[in-house]
């Protein structure tokens, strides 16, 4: 991790090659959970003196290698707790990897959770400023885009009301409008498009296509496998913090569905046991 | 228009014409180089300005007389101290009001900034666990908000200077540099201490006690002379004292601070800033786990 940020990717120099925008090299992420909670200095000191500081290490990611190229649409699937969101957090730079190296190129726009970076007491319009500032835009850049953002969100006069009165769909519209207003190099979406209505989903997919046509790469985490098939061409399946499978989206999702289905069947037979009806094969 | 599985060939064809944008460099996450860190802060300067404004607004919304409180509070404090020290403890400092007020302004800025920057990471936990915003903007903006308060509080100080007939000397022009040194020192100390507040929730109480101790080890409201000779070393070796005197000399004595104080103040504030920045940097990858 301490090695200098020297550029050495051989592929990049050849003009025909696709440009890498995200590269993960043997990335591992460990959540160190204290078994006792040392939320106070006193506790910590006592345990430290007793040499009883024990931690539970939870490896959310173990040795992930990944490259995303310019304009690529990559879906990340896996069960709850498999490490999908951790992976997105590491890529977007919210968490730093415990081991390994994360490199990104250009501007990232992550939407890791609905309504993040919003202040619920402020109006929609004020929140556009706050949120875009948090994404690293300058006041001037925001002035230039504010009308477009408001128009795309279709919130109309609601932008002048505090967002605590917004529905989750309205929050999603506003957040998506802000994050995509500046043609990010990498757009990171964690399960955030599920709450919009049909009209906005259609519209946001349209915008994702436009963005992609100009070279934005899109990383998507979703449990909606139909949406995953539609909105990406490559897919990685994360299990236990590792990439279990990687390839064309339909192939990977098929395998994932098959695995989930057989697991379900298994658990059903186990649960059913001898007392249940023998109908389950 | 639908891009369902059926039209995959069309998507594949579209792939060929993805433009290669004039590319920024592929950069490693986290600003490990000092220069990179500074550039990162500069990129977020509008956010810092926003956070400073929000901090001030919140601070003044709570009190009914708003901004006036910043000016009034140190004045009342000065009155109390003047009363106590001119009638009970009786040490002789010419124009004690100015001496004490300059000390109070400095100390308020320092101690309040330390405490608020220690709270700043926890207060913004929701943001820094979900957005890749450089964590340093939070302690930085609280210290800058404290600086704005200090500048506002200089107004009543100058009123007192004029009212008490204290001579206004050209050395006052040195004040901006003195404030810069004080801000550097305070920001460094804030960087050093704010990650600790994330890991240990009760450390702020401890720091508050230590700040009280530090205040008595710094001649904020008493003159050096009242300290018994054999204890003066404790105050002499306190770098905060030099930072304070560099700030107070132009106001109270109307002189540019002596090189001895100036050298210690500059060296101490740079050292604290570097140590604070390194400590903050080293712990910042863990901050998001603990807030």
Biggest chain-to-chain interface with counts: A-B, 62 and 50 residues
Low-confidence stretches of chain A: 1-16, 275-281
Radius of gyration from the alpha-carbon trace of chain B, in angstroms: 24 Å
Order of helices and strands of chain A: HEHEEHEEHHHEHEHEEH
Q: Which quaternary structure do these chains form?
A: heterodimer
Order of helices and strands of chain B: HEHHHHHHHHHHH
Quickly count the helices of chain B. Answer: 12
- Anisotropy-based shape of chain B: globular
- Report the count of strand segments of chain B: 1
Main sheet characteristics of chain A: 6 strands, mixed
Helix and strand composition category of chain A: alpha/beta
The secondary structure category of chain B is: mainly alpha
What are the low-pLDDT stretches of chain B, counting only 5+ consecutive residues below 50? 1-16
Your description of this structure?
The complex is a heterodimer of chains A (281) and B (291). With 281 residues, chain A is an alpha/beta fold. Chain A is built from 9 helices and 9 strands. The longest helix of chain A is centred in the C-terminal third of the chain and has 24 residues. Chain B is an all-alpha fold and 291 residues long. In chain B, helix 5 packs antiparallel against helix 7. The N terminus of chain B is likely disordered. Chain B is globular and about 75 Å long. Chain B has 12 helices and 1 strand, in the order αβααααααααααα. Chain B starts with 7 loop residues before the first helix and ends with a helix.
